[in-house]
Amino acid sequence: MVLGRSFEDMCAQMYYRGKMFGFVHLYNGQEAVSTGFVKCLKPEDYVCSTYRDHVHALSKGVPARAVMSELFGKATGICRGQGGSMHMFSKEHGLLGGFAFIGEGIPVATGAAFKTKYEREVLKNDKADAVTVAFFGDGTCNNGQFFECLNMAALWKLPIIFVVENNLWAIGMSHYRATSVPEIWKKGPAFGMPGIHVDGMDVLKVREVALEAVARARRGDGPTLVECETYRFRGHSLADPDELRKPAEKAHYAARDPIIALKKYLLESGLVDETDLRSIDKKIDEIVEDAVEFADASPLPPRSQLLENVFADPKGFGIGPDGKYRCEDPAFTAGTAQV
Fold this sequence. Notes:
By secondary structure, this protein is an alpha/beta fold. Helix content is 38%, strand content 9%.
């Protein structure tokens, strides 16, 4: 959780210094959800994220250097600089993407869960027991993909967990103004799956729920819908002045900071002392500083990379008769803007 918080704080600094471009959505305040769920998974399990995906990537084991470089648009990034903030992806780590539009990741996650079931039941692969976790926000729960995939997952008993990160605001729209039944967890039983509400500011409570949901999915008992009530400490994105939420509401949730709460629990339980906590902070600061230095020193992607991974057919539009990418020819992009 400390890595997630420190990384996002550094992203804010780098964005305002002009090192990052486009929209950057930070995860501050929601760390207990990502940590509580992802740390219950195996390396071969899958995670589908949203546009607020940096910390999900870090939780899944993607190196901080690779995530920061992607945010800088550098060739050493996790997607070679072509994905940016909202499109983190790593086959190696089972991270099936961040998605710019809400609800996009839910069908992808449902498909990944179907893959596991197909491998196990049709291809008779007894080792196929991967669990998929789909993260999305409260605003997504009024979209059609959400309901369609709940139905499909329950019908086929797919090994998937639908995790709603309910931070109470869909950009600038209050959850309570936009949803006829604001208790999202109640939509699980409507489709024949468990629906659970948990305090998303308490990592231990999230972990307890996650362990049961993961075990249920892995043993073949089907999906679970989990609503984690959480809160983002910053605006929707770094371009959002965050003027719509009331100061009293923000102060209420700031007082429930999941990192401070866990530190207090660890100290009161005698599990750590202040020296241990300071050493963690120091270690994380070093990791984040190293990630920034690495990203800043990394090269930009070459122009020849422009049309790679666009066309599946190697003889398609992007390849010339000589077998080289058309964009390698200086005349192909002559006159276009240089970024």
